[in-house]
Amino acid sequence: MPWPGPAARPGERSWDTSPVRRPGGTTPGGSGSAPGWARNRGPGPDREASLGAWPRGARGGYLSYRPSRRCRRRTGRSSQRSGFPFAGGRDCGPDPRSARVFHRPLAGRFLARPTLNGPSAGGSHSPEPVFYRIVPEFESAAPLGRCGDPDPQGILHANLSGLADDEEVEIRWLFAPASLHAQRQFAATCGRLQNGIAPCRHGPTAGLVRSVVGGVRFLLDVLLCRPAPSFQRQRSELTRIAATRALEPLLVGALLARVLAPNARQGVIAAALAQSLSQYGSSWNRLKVERLPDKLRAETWFDGWRLPNSGRWLLTAADAAALCELPTARARDPNLARAPAAQVPPAAMVPVGEGLFLGWPEPGSADPGRQLGLHIEDALRHVLAVGPTGTGKSTFLYWYARSAIRSGMGLLLLDPKGDLAEAVLDAVPESRANDVAFLNFADTARPIGLNPLAVTDPAAADQTAAAVSTMMRELVTGEGMQWGTTMSQAFAYGFRTLAANPQIEPTMLDLERLFFDRDWRANLLQNVSDPFVAAYWANQVDRMGERQFELNFGSALRRMALLVNDPRVRNILAQARPAVRWDRALKRSAIVLVNLDQADNALGIAGSRLLGSIVVTQFWQAVLRRPRDDRPPFIFMIDEFQEFLDTGRNMGAFFERSRSYRVGMCIATQSMAQPRLKAVRRSVMINARTHAVFGGLRDEARHFALSTEPHFSARDLDRREAFQMTVSALVDNQPAAPFSAHVAPLPVPHWDRLAARKRRASQLFGADLVQLEKSVRRRYGPRLN
């Protein structure tokens, strides 16, 4: 695609952030043989906006600067006397105010044309273009702010949304470094503002007008004894602003507008444009629109992306940042299509047609229909998919799980919504149908058993109890309740006491009875070999009065009772025998799909988090027990990762240690900046070596852009459309160049086959509800009433 504008130049590439040398070695806006570099972005279809690239390090809409090393090498000056190349090969010389100078031109455009067939405002002939220049009303030293309410960008979009089929408005801006002479002029103007001299209107006769107007005002003030004008009342604030602007690096820029419309509509569109741009102003300065009479010369400037001889004006970085935000994402024009993000094909080292799913190449690539892959050894170094809701994260997880299943790998998938687990269940081939364990915890008709205190190895009883105690601490403190040393000790000894009595098949519902029933607790302590556990109950708990007991344990026990006594959750936790043996599932490469639907008519948010935390805790304990000589690769996938962090503060250990046990993580989350991810954010970002970044991340895109530049900027990451992503992959333990890819929508499920598989899983792993409720009432009796 050509550089934006009708005069496309050979060798230039749009949609690419890599440096592009202009033919002839000229900088945009200049002439001669000076070498110039520009980072180009082209326009999108129909109504669009395209910004010139900002230099690396731009933050918050403002430009950051760095000294020109080439100038220092050429001139031998110190770092305080730096410069930059300018048009014609001139060196601007030292900058007496700052060692940071802007040395890269910027160019961009805003194009508005109708996207839908609307009424034509003219005849069948093509209208003649009319050119305008956009300049500040007063001298450039007067600050050019921007009003916050109403939003000027929204006004611009609204005013230009009614264009007819044969009408078009295009605004082009070009900024380049200011010459030394212009910098001195700007400093002198700022000095006059600091001395109380009002700013003069912008124009070629600014000096003469300044002298005449200033003298006349002074004589009138003296003769008529008038009070100071309104400008004098603003002097203190303007003086401060002028002093600040005098120290900022400067740009020389021009804004040109081209209007294609019939003669009867040109004035109307120009007035709408002027009214919109006038909002980009402050109390001291604002923009105005002037028609360029010389059409031939204006067309040369416009099509050639050159700074005009007249209409240039100086501006600071803040002014340029405000202007180049045209348009912003806050605009709500339904006909507005933003310029798309850059597209880069995958490197040759990225596997094609093999391995686990990494997306499909964008149209126009060498193999657009062949799946991009990730080797199994690279998948064990973890994958992170991040993006807002609706961008395609769950779809990516579906194709990733599907490829892992077809590769013969074991899989555990936690789904808090349920749709993904059912889609993966439908995608399991018949050859692996017997390897599937579909745990539909949302099915209350046939509850599936889950017991975190089930001990298969007596030697691991203490480790199991410690893991469950840590999980409960995170669940309780996650609700804003206190959990001190006393509670940690009580729950740890309580779970250890229950785990040491496998003959009673303890469950989490027995913990409350352990605290309140002294006789039953005494019987259980006879089987506890640890003297410290028995001493704790005898010397501390048994000697507490009712008030002290309530103060220490009451709130936490009530909170846990609310979690486990919900009938939907209680029927799951009351089963002593769990539905899945995790050691066996890891050894046989089973496919475990867990439906933890958080809907109110299913498990609810609290129940889903509790059951998910138990699954994660049990699975991790089984991973740590894997024998060294029997560790087939296994994939652990979590959708909405932040919902399953209540498993203790060692959740980051999954990413730090699971690869040693041949378990690879693949997680999806809406944002890594969520407070719930604070404890594990660093571990995830360091150890997840493959990233799939979807669009719409806003400010967080800057953090991911640190690993994708110069191929993709933060703007590219943020502007990905739905089901498009930027992938930074690890290939053969070497980072590959980032590339763009997309995911296809989910296929239409086979409803009959899916229903049959769900019924089969319910019969295999679920319990009869009537018999279960009878056994629960018989065991726990009146405590459930």
Could you walk me through the main structural features you see in this protein, from its secondary elements to its overall organization?
The chain has three domains: about 20-325, no CATH class; about 355-435 and about 585-760, Rossmann fold; about 460-570. Helix content is about 35%, strand content about 15%. The protein has 27 helices and 23 strands. Strands 11-23-20-19-13-18-17-14-16-15 form a ten-stranded mixed β-sheet. Strands 3, 4, 5, 6, 7, 8 and 9 form a seven-stranded antiparallel β-sheet that branches. It has a two-stranded antiparallel ribbon with strand order 1-2. Strand 21 (about 730) and strand 22 (about 735) form a beta hairpin. Helix 3 (about 180-195) runs antiparallel to helix 6 and helix 14 crosses helix 15. Residues about 1-105, about 115-125, about 230-235 and about 325-335 have low confidence and may be disordered.
Largest sheet: number of strands, sense, barrel closure: 10 strands, mixed
Q: Kindly, what is the distance between the CA atoms of the first and last residues, rounded to a whole number of angstroms?
A: 73 Å
How many discrete structural domains? 3
Oligomer: single chain
Rg calc: 34 Å
Biggest sheet strand order reads 11-23-20-19-13-18-17-14-16-15
Describe what is shown at a glance.
The protein contains 27 helices and 23 strands.
Q: Could you outline the blueprint of secondary structure elements for this entry?
A:
Layout: E1 20-21, E2 37-38, E3 48-50, H1 69-75, E4 106-112, E5 129-136, H2 152-159, E6 168-177, H3 180-194, H4 206-224, H5 230-233, H6 235-245, E7 250-260, H7 263-277, E8 287-291, H8 295-303, E9 313-316, H9 317-323, E10 356-357, E11 360-361, E12 373-374, H10 376-379, E13 383-386, H11 393-406, E14 410-415, H12 419-427, E15 436-440, H13 461-477, H14 485-499, H15 510-516, H16 518-525, H17 531-541, H18 546-564, H19 567-573, H20 582-587, E16 591-595, H21 604-624, E17 634-639, H22 652-657, E18 663-669, H23 681-687, E19 690-694, H24 701-705, H25 714-718, E20 724-728, E21 730-731, E22 734-735, E23 739-742, H26 751-765, H27 769-780
Parallel strand pairs: 13-18, 13-19, 14-16, 14-17, 15-16, 17-18
Antiparallel strand pairs: 1-2, 3-4, 4-6, 5-7, 5-8, 6-7, 7-9, 10-12, 11-23, 19-20, 20-23, 21-22
Helix pairs in contact: 2-7, 3-6, 11-12, 12-26, 13-14, 13-21, 14-15
